[in-house]
Design brief:
89 residues; alpha/beta; two-stranded antiparallel sheet
Length: 89
């Protein structure tokens, strides 16, 4: 459920432990910045959750993974309903 902060910014999802920002994979950098800001603002662990629409989007996942390992926050992903894996033969 979306949660509004005092500065009128909106967190996509807040749980007991996490402040989660959802973004499409191609908006990976925006996801990082917002997740970190929301984590600091709520004193909860930040999460960047990427929505992967096609196999090629995993290049963005791996960019964020480097950042999350360095700054110690979580990275999750989900596959969009229209995600299609095309087996190359």
């Amino acid at each position: 459920m979306e949660y509004e902060l005092n500065d009128k910014t909106r967190i996509d999802c807040v749980t007991t432990n996490y402040a989660v920002e959802f973004d499409f994979a191609k908006k990976w950098a925006e996801c990082i910045g917002q997740a970190l800001y929301y984590g600091v603002s709520t004193k909860k662990k930040p999460v960047c959750l990427l929505i992967v629409e096609k196999p090629e989007d995993f290049k963005y996942f791996y960019r964020v993974k480097k950042v999350t390992e360095f700054f110690k926050f979580d990275l999750w992903y989900i596959k969009a309903p229209e995600y299609v894996y095309k087996n190359k033969k």
